[in-house]
Amino acid sequence: MNTEKLTTLAISDSGFIFDPSTGDTFNTNEIGVKIIQLLKQGKDFNELMDLMIEQYEVTEEELEADLLDFIQLLKNYHMV
Amino acid sequence: MSKAIYVKPVIKKQETGKMNKFGSVFHRNYRDSIDGVKINDIVERYGSPVFVISETEIRNKYRQIYREFSSQYPHVQFTWSYKTNYLDAVCCVFHQEGELAEVVSEFEYQKARRLGVPGNKIVYNGPLKSKASLKIAFEEDAIVNLDNFDEVLRAEEVARSIGKQVHVGIRLNMDTGIYPQWSRFGFNLENQSAYDAARRIHMSKHLNLNGLHSHIGTFILDPSAYAIQVKKMIDLRRTLETELSISIDYLDFGGGFPSRNKLKGTYLPPEVAIPNIEEYIQAITSTLTANLLPEEYPTVYMETGRAMIDEAGFLITTIEGVKRMPNGVKSYIIDAGINILYTSNWYNFKVELDRPVQGTYENAIVYGPLCMNIDVVLENATLPPLPKGVRLILSPMGAYNMTQWMQFISYRPAIVMIMEDGTIEQIRRPEQLEDIVGPEFVPEKLRQFSL
Lengths: 80, 451
Ligand SMILES: Cc1ncc(COP(=O)(O)O)c(C=O)c1O
Hints:
CATH architecture of the largest domain in chain B: Alpha-Beta Barrel
Largest sheet of chain B: 9 strands, mixed
Number of domains of chain A: 1
CATH class of the largest domain in chain B: Alpha Beta
Strand content of chain B: 15-25%
Bound molecules: pyridoxal-5'-phosphate
CATH superfamily of the largest domain in chain B: Alanine racemase
Oligomer: heterodimer
Largest interface: A-B, 30 and 21 residues
Number of domains of chain B: 2
CATH topology of the largest domain in chain B: TIM Barrel
Radius of gyration of chain B: 25 Å
Structural class of chain A: alpha+beta
Shape of chain B: globular
């Protein structure tokens, strides 16, 4: 997964995202910000899973489905 | 260290101008029970999907409508439109409330008789009635409404063959200002064919015209159409009386009232878009009382189907798969397909969840399990992110689904009724192999094969 584009986005802690190359804006939530930050740091899917399972009250099953879905959305928005 | 609370991640592009278009949610979208019985308990006992019918809701609706009508016009008799939902248990509830049976086929006629409805308490409608069924209907003094000239001749022949003079009604169609006009049923009023039919029947030695029937359509959104219908039928009755000395005992105004369902292509929620039942009743009763003297009052039959039962029915179904489509749209796979959801053709059902689910609402497509591209149950449902296993409760589901559903690739599910006392009765068990292969036959020479 190419996460270069993510580094060009302006992301506020509150979840507001601005893409200076297109002028598009997005809203995400706290967990969304967290995932994007981890992706920016170059973490791969399995690392993401491990880190988040450790921190959050969530089953592996649910997290995997949600992460796949979230990353798919990032792809649709051409962010990764 | 205790872990942090998890919330599903979401991200959404801000689209100026259309931000709120689908953002608002019209329905209270969470219910963990129906009539006090937990969704979970129902599914545990009867599986998923499962249709649920509320006895209380049926009786309340009937009593509300009957009270409203009869307080303004006492000579009213409701007749249960079998085709709307002819499950035995449902018909019995209506018959206990005092409704006659309204049938449109030999099968429905037999079903009503089997339940113990006497022939003379059955209204027999429909554009094609076989000779055999007319013979029985006439012998049993059913209330028969004839649809066309060929049927008049057939009825006459049958009456002659049993040596009886029988009462019949005729079905009418007319312009009541609504579109489409259901002109394929019955005799047209404006072009005189209704009058001609009446005169022809009047000449018969075996037929005796005593009723006028008309069903102007279904899910009628304009109550004033009924005022026009009733006025035209009263006028015809008067004409027949003065010109041909025909005395008409009953006027049958058919069905057609809408339920609180959301028609596809409509934007407003049904609570706003659909007139109250009271307005329809008022249109009918006020036209009757304004145009007739009390001594002229005919018996009025009402064949209200959908509005009586739709809101008493629910389908519980389960999310079995979650998928993000290539175009970014969220989609879900549920365990109920369009073969058992006939009315999904024109309704956007109300969707309720069996538990509160956190998260941002998003438009989603809900697919059934049929392995067919057309199997779309909900095209545009606004839902929070749903994990597998969440149950959706779809409604209103009481009208037409449980008669027009079809068996396809799997067994049709159980139908249960939640009784007034809170107990549950299975009123139709899930199908099994023998139910479906029973009528089949394999010719001898095809039976052997080796693979
Ligand atoms: C003759 C007749 N009566 C009554 C009904 C019931 O109509 P609704 O469900 O619209 O009340 C129908 C349904 O089409 C019908 O054909």
